[in-house]
């Protein structure tokens, strides 16, 4: 099957006619399809279309755009199973999870439907009589959206829906590892009533399509989710043209388990957090910080369960963990296992590829646990993006918090304890954008701010009401109805 770009309301090939082939990571012999390998000229056309479509789209009453988002949510609901299967085939995670991923898109669309009738500004007292001060939020213009493959429906929806609802038009470049889901999303947005030119889809590589978006003068805001390395590059490029930019980057998320915790609950949490999505979430649990008193007992429980995780093609409902996304990612995970061993950490389970039966055709890797990891080891500091968990032993809650904060990242965090005082004090001290108490590091809901501190981003928050700050400008309006010149700061004395 050959798929197309969508520019100015028309489906078409890249101008160069070049394509790339996307394959199933669970079975590299299976082709998902051929997609346009676009270039700068395609991006230019998309930007032009988006610019032309802007005045009409932004002039619509917001509740009208809200209705379209409601319709989009309804269509995602109707096609939930189809989309989940598309996702599993193209990026590997198990069906149970891809259904959740689509649901996150649905929730985001319905949230937008409500937000369309709420989009509050402020009215603020003036220092002068007979003067009204208020604010409005307005679209920025053309938004460039660059998305990853690990949440092929949810993350594009996190960006597309608020960008469009706010009245922006869009140039959307999805990951080359998730082109099919993105194509379906754009088809459904169109079916929901988004007019031609308002959303433009350009498939291709970051180094060409991505770069062209970053340097295009008509793009006013860029929203990106991906690695720190690429994030730095994007911030630099956007600095040159003073584009607004929102970056959602990596994580090295820790789960603390104190000795008074419900250990069974903490065990379920870490298994889900570390091995869900094969560890390929920015929110994945990659460090487990255990209080000394329960270290041995908990580790034994964890290894027993990790060894039983059912690995295989995510389309098989019995499976709990699918493949890694690519050969490159598999090589990276293997490399980190060698690094961990050479640093002196103890490989407690896994650490090798999984090639049972049909799995030999894909990029499968066993759930891997390193014990006796010290916070200064690379496997405790660098984002691996795979099913590799580093277990750190600490004496008490103070050392646990020092360990969890000893990271250049700060996205998600978790603490398991039955002591409410300890939990709430830890919450104050943990340096992360998201903290879960008695829950794993994954599981963010679409109606709350999502993002992190330190190298995880540049201070923006997606999700909830805060994502609308990314896609809007504030206009401050003063209305003087006194009928005379009133000088602020000067005519204020009685
Ligand atoms: C990501 O890892 O890039 O909280 C997003 C979660 C999901 C979103 C993760 N709802 O794990």
From TrEMBL:
User: Keyword set for this entry?
Assistant: Oxidoreductase
**Any GO molecular function:** oxidoreductase activity, acting on the aldehyde or oxo group of donors, NAD or NADP as acceptor
| Domain spans labelled Aldehyde dehydrogenase | 16-477
Q: Which domain of life is it from?
A: Bacteria
Note the Pfam families from the entry. Aldedh
Coiled coil region boundaries = none
Family membership, please give it: Belongs to the aldehyde dehydrogenase family.
Q: Which PANTHER family match?
A: ALDEHYDE DEHYDROGENASE-RELATED
What is the protein name given in its UniProt record?
Aldehyde dehydrogenase
| Record organism | candidate division WOR-3 bacterium JGI_Cruoil_03_44_89
UniProt lineage: Bacteria, Bacteria division WOR-3
């Amino acid at each position: 099957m050959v798929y197309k770009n969508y520019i100015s309301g028309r489906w078409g090939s890249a101008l160069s006619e070049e394509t790339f082939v996307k394959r199933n990571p669970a079975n590299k012999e299976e082709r998902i399809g051929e997609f346009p390998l676009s270039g700068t000229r395609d991006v230019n056309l998309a930007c032009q279309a988006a610019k032309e479509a802007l005045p009409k789209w932004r002039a619509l009453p917001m509740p009208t755009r809200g209705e379209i988002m409601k319709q989009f949510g309804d269509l995602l609901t109707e096609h939930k199973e189809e989309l989940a299967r598309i996702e599993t085939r193209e990026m590997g995670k198990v069906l149970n999870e891809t259904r959740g991923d689509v649901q996150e898109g649905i929730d985001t669309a319905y949230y937008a439907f409500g937000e369309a009738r709420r989009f509050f500004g402020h009215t603020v007292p003036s220092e002068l009589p007979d003067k009204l001060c208020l604010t409005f939020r307005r679209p920025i213009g053309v938004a460039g959206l660059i998305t990853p493959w690990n949440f092929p429906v949810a993350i594009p929806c996190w960006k597309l829906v608020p960008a469009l609802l706010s009245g922006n038009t869009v140039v959307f470049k999805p990951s080359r590892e998730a082109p099919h889901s993105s194509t379906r999303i754009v088809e459904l947005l169109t079916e929901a009533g988004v007019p031609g030119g308002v959303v433009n889809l350009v498939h291709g590589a970051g180094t060409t399509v991505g770069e062209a978006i970053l340097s295009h003068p008509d793009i006013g805001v860029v929203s990106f989710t991906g690695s720190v390395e690429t994030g730095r590059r994007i911030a630099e490029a956007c600095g040159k043209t003073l584009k607004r930019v929102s970056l959602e980057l990596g994580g090295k998320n820790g789960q603390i388990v104190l000795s008074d915790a419900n250990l069974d609950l903490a065990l379920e949490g870490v298994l889900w957090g570390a091995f869900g999505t094969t560890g390929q979430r920015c929110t994945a649990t990659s460090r487990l910080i255990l209080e000394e008193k329960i270290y041995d007992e908990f580790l034994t429980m964890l290894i027993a369960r990790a060894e039983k995780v059912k690995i295989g093609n995510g389309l098989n409902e019995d499976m709990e963990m699918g493949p890694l996304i690519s050969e490159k990612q598999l090589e990276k995970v293997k490399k980190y296992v060698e690094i961990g061993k050479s640093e002196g950490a103890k490989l407690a389970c896994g650490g090798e590829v999984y090639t049972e039966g049909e799995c030999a055709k894909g990029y499968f890797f066993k759930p891997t646990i390193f014990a006796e990891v010290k916070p200064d080891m690379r496997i405790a500091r660098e984002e691996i993006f795979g099913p590799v968990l580093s277990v750190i032993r600490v004496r008490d809650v103070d050392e646990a918090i020092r360990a969890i904060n000893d990271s250049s990242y700060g996205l998600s965090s978790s603490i398991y304890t039955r002591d409410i005082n300890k939990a709430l004090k830890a919450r104050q001290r943990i340096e992360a954008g998201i903290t879960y108490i008695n829950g794993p590091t994954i599981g963010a809901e679409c109606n709350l701010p999502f993002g992190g501190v330190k190298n995880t981003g540049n201070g923006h928050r997606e999700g909830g009401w805060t994502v609308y700050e990314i896609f809007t400008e504030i206009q401050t309006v003063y209305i003087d109805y006194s009928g005379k010149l009133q000088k602020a700061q000067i005519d204020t004395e009685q």
